[in-house]
Design brief:
2 helices; mainly beta; 59% strand; 6-stranded antiparallel sheet; 8-stranded antiparallel β-barrel
Length: 203
């Protein structure tokens, strides 16, 4: 009976941190902020207070059974870096081009991206900027609307684009987006291409 009462706190009084590299740590969580979790090792509670960045954490299972995913169920936080390719078609000039994109979610709501496009006439488009996505830190939604502001060059003319659309990102890495990007060149709306992109996201 004495041994059982000694073991009960260790069986039922511990928290478990699961990391993204598939480790499980038996700990006693002391504090969690928006960016880190602070904890003591369960077998050394008199030891130092340790800190881990929440980006390394997959989930925290508390002793009372509650599981905290620390925002990591949001696919935009879980897989922040992405590459994609697609096509754009503008009904105003009846012209289209191919484009490639690299982007990174600084936070789940803000995506920074760089684009390069080429059309059949060997003209080019180069732009960079940001897009604001309408989701929360802990959102599990794969489909999210966005709006953005990009600046760059089109046929060596300075341009500004205002993309508006929806993006789809799975927890497994597949991504796609559909948008319309009104484009200003020399203070005139010269095109408003519809863009379709498909790509892959990485941790």
């Amino acid at each position: 009976m004495i041994i059982l009462s000694f073991m009960l706190p260790y069986c039922f009084g511990q928290d478990v941190i699961s990391t993204k590299d598939n480790r499980q740590l038996n700990v006693k969580v002391a504090e969690q902020t928006g960016s880190v979790v602070k904890y003591y090792m369960n077998d050394y509670t008199g030891g130092p207070l340790l800190t881990m960045n929440l980006r390394r954490v997959s989930s925290i299972k508390y002793a009372n059974g509650i599981i905290d995913y620390a925002g990591n169920q949001n696919p935009r936080r879980n897989r922040p870096f992405g590459i994609s390719a697609g096509v754009a078609y503008d009904r105003m000039d009846e012209d289209g081009y191919f484009l490639a994109t690299a982007d990174y979610f600084v936070i789940p709501q803000l995506d920074l991206e760089m684009n390069i496009g080429v059309d059949g006439n060997i003209g080019f488009l180069l732009s960079a900027g940001g897009k604001a996505h309408l989701n929360s830190d802990n959102s599990e939604h794969c489909l999210t609307p966005f709006a953005g502001l990009l600046a760059g060059y089109c046929y060596l003319w300075f341009m500004i684009q205002v993309p508006v659309g929806v993006s789809y990102i799975t927890k497994f890495g597949l991504s796609a987006s559909l948008s319309v990007s009104p484009t200003l060149v020399r203070r005139e709306l010269v095109m408003a291409p519809a863009e379709l992109r498909v790509g892959w996201r990485f941790r």
